[in-house]
Amino acid sequence: MKRKILIEKRDGRIRTFFMEDGEIAEIHSTPEDGGSSGRYRLGDIYIGKVQNIVPNIGAAFIEIEKGISCYFDMKDASHAIFTRKSGKKLLCIGDELVVQISKEAAKTKVPTVTSNVSFTGRYAVLTHGNTRIGVSSKLPRAVRDEFKEKLNSYRNEDFGLIVRTNAKNAPFSEVLKEILSLRDEYERLRKNAQTRVCFTCLKSAPPPYISDLKNVYMDGMESIVIGDRELYTRIHLFFQSELPEKTDLLELYDNHEFPLDKLYSTQTALDKALRERAWLKTGGYLIIQPTEALTVIDVNSGKASSKAGSEEGALKVNLEAAREAARQIRLRNLSGIIIVDFINMEQEENTELLLREFRCHLAKDPIQSTLVDMTALGLVEVTRRKTRRPLYEEEGVI
Predict the structure, then answer these.
(1) Are 70 and 62 in contact (CB under 8 A)?
(2) 203 DSSP β-pair partners
(3) Phi/psi zone of residue 159: left (φ > 0), alpha (ψ -120 to 50 degrees), beta?
(4) How far is CA 37 from the centre of its chain?
(5) Is 68 helix (H, G, I), strand (E, B) or coil?
(6) Could you state, in chain order, the average pLDDT of each consecutive group of 10 residues for the chain (398 residues)?
(7) How many CB atoms lie within 10 A of CB 139?
(8) In angstroms, rounded to a whole number, what is the distance separating the alpha carbons of residues 183 and 126?
(9) Is 242 exposed, middle or buried (0-12, 13-18, 19+ CB in 10 A)?
(10) Closest residue by Cα to residue 162 from 203, 118, 201, 195
């Protein structure tokens, strides 16, 4: 697969477009100045203070700054790194502990923090609170087994390790070098935390567009095209420090008469990704409606209504809808519970074919997506892990 990344600064925002085989597969957007959410970013690590405990929901609320309260799952408290303890219970009001933002604030919801802090590298993740040695399920079984065997001697009671998909073709020596660097960073943070006051930010996450580059799968990457000189300088410095072997991928596109959004039609792609309706080649279309609790995708036969009246026609529209629904879920970064209402079909073998097709395309998503089942009412349930806010929220479209 041929991959390319486009990064542009326009209308006060920095947008990253991930292209696969010439088609835009993902869009990420962030305010140029960081915005209100830029102050408390996913991955930031603080010394927080327990403000309140709500036993009936198994949660606590932890301040990371005066007046900035975050949701905390009490199950995480068993591995917490405390800098000040106020009582003998597992968690007490007034306790001060190290927490990391695991979900940014969204709409009416406050940020979520965890005491199971993690340190993410290009090839591996170090996890406090989870001591297992894990390897990405996207790697072949033989590669997974080899990594687990080689890393078994690094198993300990303080932290665990997860080898990422990016490590597929990396020499083990490079992966190990990064793991040891992450371990040193983790140990320094634990030590420094004991000498810092409450509300100290122990670690700031990089801007989202840098994190995107750090986390992206580089296999097949042809170029990273940046349409702004200042952005290019920042990203070039990051690559020189973190990914020197990939610096040659960076390209500055500095044509003001024919900017990046004209060359690759990025504005058109963005506009389509923010619309409620997504058209299918058969003439049908999807209606995509996010709500507070879940996202609903309704498949309509549209201009293909005459064809969809038959079982064969309905199957044809549904198969294309399954491919497009999987693409739109990734493109718009939809997450949580997603319900898809396909056109009803009578034959069970056609339904099974549809579900296989949908699973196949969901599996291409780098974010974990699962087709749960089809309900008695014929609704297909999908879940997708949330890693950041959906595109419509990032763009401020409610």
Answers:
(1) yes
(2) 45
(3) beta
(4) 16
(5) strand
(6) 94 94 94 64 94 95 94 94 94 97 80 95 93 92 95 94 91 95 96 96 90 83 95 93 89 92 95 96 94 94 67 93 98 96 94 97 92 93 90 85
(7) 18
(8) 7
(9) middle
(10) 118
Q: Residue 53's closest CA among 36, 69, 37, 32?
A: 69
Q: Are strands 379-384 and 336-341 parallel, antiparallel or unpaired?
A: antiparallel
Tell me, what's the pLDDT at 325? 98
Residue 347: CB atoms within 10 Å: 12
- In the three-class reduction of DSSP (H, G, I as helix; E, B as strand; rest coil), residue 44 is classed as coil
Separation CA 82–CA 94 (nearest Å): 11
**Could you tell me which of 329, 325, 322 has the C-alpha nearest to residue 386?**
329
Name residues whose C-beta falls within 8 Å of residue 43's C-beta, 6 or more positions apart in sequence. 100, 101, 120, 203, 205, 211
Give the DSSP letter of residue 109. Answer: B
Contacts of residue 141, Cβ cutoff 8 Å, sequence gap at least 6 = none
Contacts of 229 (CB under 8 A, 6+ apart): 252, 254
Residue 294: strand, helix, or coil: coil
* Both structure tokens of 135: 């390897």
pLDDT of residue 36: 44
CB count in 10 Å sphere of residue 104: 21
Cα–Cα nearest to 182, from 239, 125, 132 = 125
| Cβ–Cβ under 8 Å, residues 290 and 276 | no
Written as six digits, the tokens of 201 are: 């930010």
Instruction: Give the Cα separation of 261 and 246 in Å (integer).
Output: 24
CA distance 52 to 63: 9
Token pair of 275 as six digits: 């619309």
Beta pairing, strands 112-114 & 96-103: antiparallel
Token digits for 71? 């949701």
CA distance 50 to 199: 11
Read off the tokens for 96. 């001060």
Residues 6+ apart with CB under 8 A from 70: 48, 61, 62, 63, 64, 99, 101, 110, 111, 112, 113
Q: Which amino acid is at 211?
A: S
**Would you give the end-to-end CA distance of the chain in angstroms?**
34
Residues shown for the chain: 398
